[in-house]
Structures are given as C-alpha cells and as structure tokens.
C-alpha cells in the first residue's frame, strides 16, 4: 500500500533538503527522495553542491591555498620551511571527509525534523485521489502518494559538442575534483566560476593552466572594473587566460586532449593538454522524472516552467533551484525551497532576486550583489560610485593580502544602494552586509554611519560608502 505524505520532495540538494526541513517545521508529514550514492552505495544527500560542487571545491581551494602560502608567502612572515611535499591522496581524502560530514549532517537533520528519507530515483506515476503518485526506484521500490510535490532535481554539467566527459581525461566539475596526480598541463574551457576556481586549485598545486573563454570580455557578468582587477591578479599568479576564443576542433586520446581554436584576433591556435576541464555551463536535470507522462511543462530551454512563486502547470506541483529559471546558485535554491514550503503551509514565502549575492572563491575572492555599472548605464539610472582599496585597510595589510577594492553604487538622488562589488580578501563574507542593507533598501549613508570594528576588512565597506559622498577618511 502506498505511503501517504503531505509533501514529497524529489531531490535532496540545497533546494530540496531545505524545503523538506522547513515543511516539516510547519507541521507537514514530509518525504524526501534522493538517488545520490557514495562509492560503497550508501546515501549521499546534498546534491551537486555537497558532493561535487560548492563544498568539495572549497575544501580543495583551502588546501591548495595552504600549499601556495607555505611555498610562496610564509617567508615574508619570517617562517622558513624546507622540503615541502605534496601528498595529493591525503589532500583529496580530506576533501572526501568534508563531503561525508555534510552528507551525514543532512541525514541527521532529516531524522531530527522527522523527514522520511528514501534512497532512490523519484518519478511521477500519475495523478491519484489524494494527490500525486510518486515512484521510488532504489534497492527496494516504493510507491508514495503526496498532496504536494516539490521537484528539486538540480542540474548537470553541459558537454562540449563532440567531446563527452570520461572523467579521466575530459573532466566535468566531478572529475576535476579527483584528479589522481597533478597534471603537467591542464586546459580549462570556460572562465566562469567553476573554471576559475578549479583552475586555481590545480595551478597552485603545480599544473600549467590555460583557460579558454568564448566571451570577448573576461567575467562579463561582473562589474568590469572588478573583472579587470581579477584578470590582472590571475595572470600575475600564472593562469593563462584567453578570451574571444572559438573552438574549431577537439581530439581526445589516452595521453591527453588537443584543442584547435581561433583567438580573439582570428588567428588559428593549438593547445595540447594532459587533462581538460569543460565548464561551459549546466543544464536542468529532468531525466528520469517521467515528466511527459503527467504533462509537466518544460520551457524552450528545458527548464521546468514555473510562475513567480515556483508553481508548475500541474496542481500542487512545484519546482525550485537549478531545474527552474534564475541563477544556478545553491543559496537561491535554498531560498526558493523555504519560500515554497511556507506557501504550501499557508504563509507568504518570498525570494528577492535583486538581492541574491554571487561569489567566486578564487584568491582574490570576488563577490557582488545588485547591479553593476554597465547595467546601470544601460538602464539609464543616474548613480554615484564610491570605492576603497584594500591596500589602505590596516587589517588587509596585516594579513598580507591587499589586492582589490570595495565598490558601492548608489542612486544619485535617493542614495539607495543599487549594487556592491568586492574583489579582495574574504569578499564572500563581506558581501553579507551589502545584501542586508539592500534588502532593507538602505542608503550608502547608512553604511557610512554604522560603526565597524577596527581593525577589520569590513571597514573597507564603510570607507567605500563614505567615498560615495567623497569623504573617505583613510584614503
């Protein structure tokens, strides 16, 4: 007999597991289905983010940053280290441990919040009395009935046409996190978040890294002043970045990959690498849902079609995260998951897309929220800009990390903060203050009048706000 639930969530990534927990907190009887497994077949909830995305990449970035520091920067602190050895197996093993801790943490949270977890593939069987019939295909098949369903099946890496992932030579983000030996030459196609972060990891560990980007501008999604600073920093570190590239042919073999391409000037070039990371975006994961059998509508790009509140075309069926429109970010998925759970519970969940921050965890880190200068100009908005360099910040000097700046854009008339753009140390943490002030539609003057502890990196945010009114105190 089918098991009855108020809500069944398909997918236990950031959007799915958070939605399930929030719904359970609101008193619903909730089930969550997820097929992700560890190497030994045990459940591994957390989706791409926990298993092969945000969490493991940050673990590798941290480890590789330590390696970079001990090899190149400890001496300036008076610390001399000789005979540094890289034990890559241990480094990768630590990353795996961090991932498992997060997997286990989610399973614990399900138990704590009385969410019933099913390990397997979830798919629609049809509409029945009481809601929707959901099939779980795993070690043991189950049939569930749910009044409401949330689809949170995430996304998968986009393949380069004619070049399939083998995760040995041609790598997605998955294979790029577990290369067994540091390659001598590593190619990266796509200078987005994944390409830059993983390219940075392996460059620090000793690989010669070349990044090929199709867009004519580097980091076109970021404020161009930030992008130029980032390109300068990454190039100085040793990343070889080529923009305006058009790939004409790729050949993969046992010994590596050859990429033929034309550069920004139209000249033909050839790149031979031992390993190739392809990071050209991600596609919504709708495979296996059996969506067509129940008439679940997809849009022209293959995403599940939803309205502003994440409702699909089917009654009481919702979708959140990477599988729907909007930025493919874990925290966006979480916010949508909470909002949908609250809507199902009779509350008024809300997600403000204008205040969703973006972060690139390279060194220097890059983070922004709101609109950048080129967007404000295109929108015809009159604005004021203020910036402050980390080289004038006492804490940054003490850290020995003074690259970059904070930039604040405010409405020329009302002083409302319209965008904040940071490149520099701990930008991922500093952006939270900007998100908060924008969520409350605060002004640059509000930031400028708030007392910031000294010495802290956050003082650079305050000084940038002061710079909007041309009254910085330390620069």
UniProtKB/TrEMBL annotation:
Its EC number is 1.8.1.4. It is found in: Cytoplasm. It catalyses: N(6)-[(R)-dihydrolipoyl]-L-lysyl-[protein] + NAD(+) = N(6)-[(R)-lipoyl]-L-lysyl-[protein] + NADH + H(+). Its main location: cytoplasm. SUPFAM superfamilies: FAD/NAD(P)-binding domain, FAD/NAD-linked reductases, dimerisation (C-terminal) domain. GO terms for molecular function: dihydrolipoyl dehydrogenase (NADH) activity. Residues 356-465 form the Pyridine nucleotide-disulphide oxidoreductase dimerisation domain. It holds the Pfam family Pyr_redox_dim. Keywords: Cytoplasm, FAD, Flavoprotein, NAD, Oxidoreductase, Redox-active center. Residues 5-337 form the FAD/NAD(P)-binding domain. The keyword Cytoplasm applies. Its cofactor is FAD. It is an enzyme of class 1 (oxidoreductase). Binds 1 FAD per subunit. Belongs to the class-I pyridine nucleotide-disulfide oxidoreductase family. The active site is a redox-active disulfide bond. This is Dihydrolipoyl dehydrogenase. The lineage of its organism: Bacteria, Pseudomonadati, Pseudomonadota, Betaproteobacteria, Burkholderiales.
